[in-house]
Amino acid sequence: MSSFRVNLRELAKQPPKLLPGHRLCAGCAAPVIVKLALAASDKPTIVTVATGCLEVATTIFPYTSWKVPWIHNAFENAAATASGIEAALKALKRKGRLKYEKVNVIAFAGDGGTYDIGLQALSGALERGHDFVYILYDNEAYMNTGIQRSGGTPKGAWTTTSPSGTVIPGKREHKKPIADIAVAHKIPYVATVSPAHWLDLMRKVHKALEVEGPAFIHAICPCPRGWRFPENRTMEVARLAVDTCFFPLWECENGEWRLTDRSLQIAKRPETKKPVEEYLKVQGRFRHLFKPENRRIIDELQRYVDAVWEDLLKRCGLA
Amino acid sequence: MAEPVKQTVMALNGDEAVAWAVKQCDVDVVAAYPITPQTIIVERFAEFVANGEVDTEFIAVESEHSALSACVGAAAAGARAFTATASQGLALMWEIVYIASSLRLPIVMAIVNRALSAPINIHCDHSDSMGCRDAGWIQIYVEDAQEAYDTVIQAFRIAEHPNVQLPVMVMLDGFFLSHTLQNVSLLPDNVVREFVGVRKPVEVEVPYLGKVPLVLDPENPITLGPLDLYDYYFEHKMQQQEAIESSREVIKQVNEEYAKISGRKYGDGFIDAYGLEDADVAIVVLGSTAGTVRHVAKQMRKEGAKVGMVRLRTFRPFPYEELAEALKGVEVVGVMDRSMSFGGYGGPVFVELRAAFYDLPERPIVLDYVYGLGGRDAPPSMIREIYEELLEVKRTRKVEKVLKFVGVRE
Amino acid sequence: MAELKGWREIPMAAVPWKLSTEFKTGDWRTFRPVIDQEKCVKCLICWVYCPDMAIEWDGEKVTINYDYCKGCGICANECPRKAIRMEEEVR
User: Is residue B258 part of a domain?
Assistant: First the structure.
């Protein structure tokens, strides 16, 4: 465990790197993730963001909410843009034209710009080993364009392109294991984080920035609008995702797997693991699953979550 | 300098000439993906990198879309960036082509002109680069490997000029130039270095920061690539229009300056005319075919025919004034288009030229000859036939068809 | 509403020239959080979870910046001391 420390009372006095006045929805988890991620390091940082909620709502011309140098290129190329920035910094430094010792390069992208359209650029950047951190803020659908399904949408969820109709009850496919895909690239550091588990998030982002080479952070980003829950329960929902093992918190450092924070606690005390129903019932996007004819899907989800959890425990040597 | 410097002659093909130019221009980042017939540029450059002959970060990206995306990131971070592609690769990066110019990034990209699928064809035509002529890049077409080398060097100067700050596309014909060996005179490293200098980002006035460099710099954090609504997008496009108009002067200036150190001048930078002092008819053409046209024109002039030609070098910004001036007195102009806009009045060069002449009190008859699609050869005999036809039209003043497709079997 | 500028007056490359702090999102609220300073132990959990950076700490007191607070209520929901209550916004 790294000795990363945070003094909230000092941190909260510092000027914010993401400014208020942005137009993300009330109760959105994305700005919380960004705030905590940018607070995890005090080194100079350059940020690139893929098209999506975060990008659009924080840079409506002529306003910007960013107090760090920032570039938005297109939807599917956050990782490619970050690669170019990283290479430029390397070249300029070698030629003695960079005034900084080290500059953090962070790419933020949603599940849209990562699981689906952005997967190629991500895979290429990871394979090439660029020294940057890719943070996926996963609200599990193409939220900015109106809640359409993505590869990150969980099975059974309602979205506008996987609606819960009389014949098909929501998305039929399971969530793509994006963090596993990152691990399969054999990069130095991969971790899952939740904004509700803020210290764990900050510690992991700090570590990701410290490692040399690519790091991938998968952040669950509950969305009051798209997941259909009241906007004051965002952190509750994130907590339930972890408590039910729908979204376990782990890190994989050079192939070594570790559970962290609440998920580690659950592994040690399995009786505290909550049934998936607790998570599903607070979100309107799963409401149709509670109809008698759809109950089997909840059972399927429970079995799926359990299987993935068991597998994770084995990988972490905690089975 | 009083006279051009001593140069080294190397036998290089067009692609290699480009790679050598990039080698000498102190490029910081090259992000490229191979596609025939551009592959040699990338391969040759990778060799330079592997042998430590250049101090450049070479990103072997996983697609052309990522190639230009990485160049955008690199240029935004203050680096001098270069890439090259053709055909499908350019088509794939099309959305980023617009983004690069709209973000005012001085990226230089070599396009080795190749036809677009389908059917897949690896040979030369101009449909790829013509496809993004509206994107706001400066577009220059070269005639031979020497000019490919010279123009890439000039391109960095043009792109990075404070009044321009726009990306530049340098086109060379696929296979005809890319894979054909020529004697290319290379300037000494230090002369090229001095000519292109170090990239110096321009300054932008941002009220909450003051006057800061247009670069991603933690000390002066600017935002690049915001969301525009209908209240400001149009205004931002006007800025681009102003920039590309400002580039006209710069293209001419750089052409002049480069001539002083190399001894090579390409017309006025925009057009290169031959035989127009007394020509009755003329052909307007881009790229390597210009060499064939000039060769035939020379022959026919010896035979007493009053023919001339204009090689159009810079297509964007389009030199409508220069062409109108050069072709004054010519009665019939035949435009050779190596690409077609299906369902349109004619090929892109023809349509531009026609529009340029429309307002003039006296204008020539302008005809379109679409040729060479998919690498179809344009031999001297075909050029001669075109000239004969133009002369016939001059004689009869009768036009049966404005748009013709030559060299194709019915 | 600021006057719209012409293209010669704005920075090149579409660089935004105003910070979002000039855009007060406080008028989005229908409920506003009110901190009971007696109950507040200054743990700053509300600061951590506020999506709008609308909670301020000056070293002594925790205050809500009502210029930006959108009234999401996360702070009230998360406060371990239940020191924040949501009141109906009256304008």
Answer: yes
Q: Phi and psi dihedrals of C16, rounded to 5?
A: -60, 140
CB contact, 8 Å: C2 with chain B? no
C10 touching B, CB under 8 A? yes
Q: Are B292 and B349 in the same domain?
A: yes
Q: What is the CATH number of the domain that holds B72?
A: 3.40.50.970
The answer to whether B358 faces chain A, any CB pair under 8 Å, is no
**Which token pair is C36?**
């009971």
**Tens digit of each residue's pLDDT (9 = 90 or more) over B324-358:** 999 999 999 999 999 999 999 999 999 999 999 99
| Average confidence (pLDDT) over C16-38 | 97
Residue B99 within a domain:
yes
User: B207 to chain A: which residues are within 8 Å by CB?
Assistant: none
* B279 and B337 part of one domain: yes
Q: Are residues B105 and B163 in the same domain?
A: yes
Pick from C6, C13, C18: CB nearest B224 = C13
Asked whether residue B2 carries a pLDDT value surpassing 70, the answer given is no
Structurally, how many domains does chain B consist of?
Answer: 2
A58 contacts C25? CB cut-off 8 A = no
Which pLDDT value is given to residue B3?
Answer: 65
Q: What is the pLDDT of residues B246-282, one digit of tens each?
A: 999 999 999 999 999 999 999 999 999 999 999 999 9
Closest-CA distance, B295 to chain A, in angstroms, reads 44
Residues of chain B found within 8 Å of residue A83, distances taken between Cβ atoms: 31, 59, 61, 66, 70, 73
Widest CA span in chain B: 70
Q: Does residue B392 lie in a domain region?
A: yes
Residues B326 and B258 in one domain: no
Bond into B106 cis (ω within 30): no
**Domain around B145:** 8-202+238-262
Q: Which CATH architecture has domain C23-88?
A: 2-Layer Sandwich (3.30)
| pLDDT tens-place string over residues A129-169 | 999 999 999 999 999 999 999 999 999 999 999 999 999 99
What pTM was computed for the model? 0.97
- If asked whether residues B71 and B173 sit together in one domain, one would say yes
Helix ranges, chain A (H): 8-11, 30-39, 53-58, 78-94, 119-128, 178-184, 198-210, 224-227, 234-243, 261-268, 276-280, 295-315
CATH code for A8-315? 3.40.50.970
Domain ranges for chain C:
23-88
Indicate the pLDDT class of residue C91, thresholds 50, 70 and 90. confident
Cross-chain Cβ contact A69/B221 below 8 Å:
yes
Q: Among all residues of chain A, which has the CA nearest to that of C56?
A: A12
* DSSP label of B10: E
Q: What are the CA-CA distances from residue C65 to residues A101, B167, C46, C58 (Å)?
A: 36, 44, 12, 12
Same domain, B243 and B330: no
**Which residues of B, range 117-136, sit inside 8 Å of C by Cβ?**
none
Same domain, B139 and B51: yes
Structure confidence at residue C1 (pLDDT): 53
pLDDT of A213-255, one tens digit each? 999 999 999 999 999 999 999 999 999 999 999 999 999 999 9
Structure tokens of B157? 């100067």
- Main-chain dihedrals φ then ψ at residue C87, nearest 5 degrees: -110, 150
pLDDT digits (tens, 9 = 90+) for C30-87: 999 999 999 999 999 999 999 999 999 999 999 999 999 999 999 999 999 999 999 9
What pLDDT was estimated at residue B5? Answer: 83
Q: Do B317 and B257 belong to one domain?
A: no
Domain-wise residue ranges, chain A: 8-315
Is A108's Cβ below 8 Å from some Cβ in B? Answer: no
Q: Measure in Å the smallest separation between the Cα of B81 and chain A Cα atoms.
A: 8
Contacts of B117 (CB under 8 A, 6+ apart): B87, B88
Burial class (CB within 10 angstroms; exposed 0-12, middle 13-18, buried 19+) of A300: middle
Chain B interface, mutation test: which of C12, C18, C20, most B Cβ atoms within 10 Å?
Answer: C12
